[in-house]
Amino acid sequence: MSMVTLTATLVLTTAFSAFGQTQAASTPTPLSQLLAEAGANNPQITAANYGVRAARQMAPQVTTLPDPKFTYQQFSVGSPKPFAGYTNSDFAYIGVGASQELPYPGKLGLRGAVAERDADTKQAELEVTKTGIADAVKTDYLQLAYLQQTLGILRQNETVLDQLIQDATAHYQVGQGMQQDVLQAQVNRTKIVKEITMHHQQMGQIQAHLKGLLSRDQASPDIVTEDLTVTPLQRTSEELLVMVRQNNPQIQVDASSIRKQDAQVASAKREGKPDFEVGYLYENTDRKYRDYYMFTFDVRFPRKKRVDAEIAEATDKRSESQQTLNGHLQQQLADVQQEYVKATSDEELLKEYREGLVPQSDAAYRATLSAYASNREPFIHVLSYFTDLLSLKLEYAETLVDHEAALAHLETLTGATLR
């Protein structure tokens, strides 16, 4: 009996130290460090940055006057040959001149405003890209933390179960237990080994995806996360909904698109005004005759049908952008409310696990194990309570990662720092 008591003590000491611990590994990397690394190295963010820089170069192009034109003329008299009549006719000449198109005042400025608003939209889209990458990094990090943490729980419980199998075998050998107890314990151990194998597979997949987001070499050392802890949600639902309107990246893109279309409507209306062109030509007729000097002034009148169509197109696109904003806003508000409900309900559930389910299951398992050591409880009851306690530990960890993931998604939706 002393051997069984010693075994029970060892099992109790080991079983409950696993709760909330992670596997021993190298120094954990904070999430904030990975987010900064992704922001600096992610190819999608880098490409979007170049897109913004390229868009900023459009305004100088569209606000600059059209290219000037240089003109050279040679007018022959009496023959198609070059310079025919140049020395004996006052009609033959060599002319040199230049001309410049002059858009109606305000046209270039409004075109520049459209280009600037387009660049602003690109900038807002860059923020969407950054936020999306950050959200993906957070998701991978949290899932990886969950897997690393539960892997530690599984490994330590595998050790506990090995000890229970030894106890069950010892009982069976002295005629105090049944062989099926040993077999059932071995089946449960196989299930834990399977879970450990699946954890390794999932961790490998997440490591690969996360390294891709960080633009790290796939052969680089694996990332070790910090322990997951509960982060209380300090914001109210109303505060988060207000933040969506102010800070949500997609809403900012839509609002910027509306401002661009406003500028496009104003520019399209201005395009109905006439444009001008001025030119000057000097004609030389040899020194025996008087030279000619020509000034030209041209006016181009845009076709009303084309201008009206451009105005209608810009107006319809503005309406489209407004409706897109309305649709996205309602979707984002709904997403925030859903994540808020999930986060708050998960907090209540986590409290129930910490203060009720886990301690009660722990106490039941300890009592049953002690009774089994004294031959007052069958092994199947010990195994049942062991399995229940392990399931509660894993459920707690899963609820914890769901809660933290909900907060991370709320950060993406609202632009607030919640973790």
TrEMBL record:
Keywords: Coiled coil, Signal. It holds the Pfam family OEP. One of its GO terms (molecular function) is efflux transmembrane transporter activity. Transmembrane segments: none annotated. Residues 1-24 form the signal peptide. Gene3D superfamilies: Outer membrane efflux proteins (OEP). The keyword Membrane does not apply. SUPFAM superfamilies: Outer membrane efflux proteins (OEP). Residues 304-346 form a coiled coil. InterPro entries: MdtP/NodT-like (IPR010131), OMP_efflux (IPR003423). Belongs to the outer membrane factor (OMF) (TC 1.B.17) family. PANTHER family: BLR4935 PROTEIN, OUTER MEMBRANE CATION EFFLUX PROTEIN. This is Outer membrane protein TolC. The lineage of its organism: Bacteria, Pseudomonadati, Acidobacteriota, Terriglobia, Terriglobales.
